[in-house]
Amino acid sequence: MTNLYNWNVKQIFLYMTVSFEHDFGGKNSTKSVITVWDSILPRWETKRSKTTWVMRNRHKYKFENEAIEYPIRDVYHTLKGKTVTVSLKAEVMPIIGHIFSVHLHNTTLALPNKYV
């Protein structure tokens, strides 16, 4: 994510989505995209003792001990054995200018045939 930061970036909104196809038994299928995790990565932070601004070294994000904030509820059990796409995306919010989106990474996961 180092290439996303420059002098004009105020903060980055980082989020993870899960997308999958719904097939309701007919010809119609619907694609769903669900946000399961998000975080705001500010460029600056203030120290408690001073009012000076300090650069935050947040160019690398570690996903250790992160939990799913918004879990997926499969009420009709239509996701058993399906393949879903997990995507990591970012919205870059500049100090001056337009917000722009960046697609950082994609991977696919096969869901289990049985729920625990």
Average pLDDT figure: 80
Secondary-structure content class: mainly beta
Strand content: over 45%
Number of strands: 6
Distance between the termini: 36 Å
What is the 3D form?
Answer: elongated
Biggest sheet record: 4 strands, antiparallel
Strand order of the largest sheet: 2-1-5-6
The radius of gyration computed from the alpha-carbon positions, rounded to a whole number of angstroms, is 19 Å
The number of helical elements comes to 0
Helix content: under 10%
What is the H/E order? EEEEEE
Low-pLDDT runs? 49-58
Features:
two-stranded antiparallel sheet; 6 strands; 0% helix; mainly beta
Topology readout:
Elements: E1 9-23, E2 29-42, E3 44-46, E4 53-55, E5 83-94, E6 100-110
Tell me about this structure:
This protein is an all-beta fold. It contains no helices and six strands. It is elongated and about 50 Å long.
What's the quick description here?
By secondary structure, this protein is mainly β.
